[in-house]
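User: quick one, sequence for these tokens?
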């Protein structure tokens, strides 16, 4: 990965993203030395434009950003750094410098597809056909998939286990639709419990 530091007078933007949720946490700037130190130590180090020196995020707060992946954009003049954050990324104490949690992963996309197939009454859609059978049938499928997942968890075939887990998640999303709720609402319950 060759980065073009010349366009920005020796600096490139470095977008920091949570490795799991894909939420954008912050934006900083790196020179070549900051990038090398980040790679070497595994903690994100920026070049501070105000202090005119390198600074490792978390050096005073302990909220380090542990590097999982580093990639460049198509012009090789911007970095994307995926991290595991040891605490809030923002100096204001929030997860992200851009406010509330905003990242939505693939399950949100799948939820949207499920809702669209039901709302558009797609005739050939398994999802829509299952939904039309009513809450009892949808709930029964969730129960069946849960039992199959438990059975697979007792065996040593990781592929079968993952497939059963995927089936359970899919059918749970259909059940959420049938109950007129969403992943976001379930997340809110989990977040509230997490505070306790």
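Assistant:
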């Amino acid at each position: 990965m060759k980065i073009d530091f010349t366009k920005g007078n020796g600096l490139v933007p470095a977008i920091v993203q949570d490795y799991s949720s894909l939420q954008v946490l912050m934006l900083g700037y790196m020179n070549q030395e900051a990038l090398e130190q980040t790679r070497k130590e595994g903690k994100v180090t920026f070049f501070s434009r105000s202090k005119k020196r390198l600074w490792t995020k978390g050096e005073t707060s302990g909220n380090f950003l542990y590097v999982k992946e580093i990639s460049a954009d198509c012009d090789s003049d911007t970095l994307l750094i995926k991290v595991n954050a040891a605490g809030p990324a923002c100096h204001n104490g929030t997860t992200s410098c851009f406010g509330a949690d905003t990242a939505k992963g693939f399950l949100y996309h799948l939820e949207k597809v499920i809702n669209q197939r039901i709302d558009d009454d797609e005739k050939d859609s398994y999802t829509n056909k299952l939904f039309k059978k009513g809450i009892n049938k949808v709930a029964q499928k969730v129960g069946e998939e849960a039992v199959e997942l438990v059975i697979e968890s007792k065996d040593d075939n990781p592929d079968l286990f993952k497939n059963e887990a995927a089936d359970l998640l899919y059918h749970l999303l259909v059940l959420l639709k049938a109950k007129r709720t969403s992943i976001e609402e379930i997340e809110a319950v989990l977040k509230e419990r997490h505070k306790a």
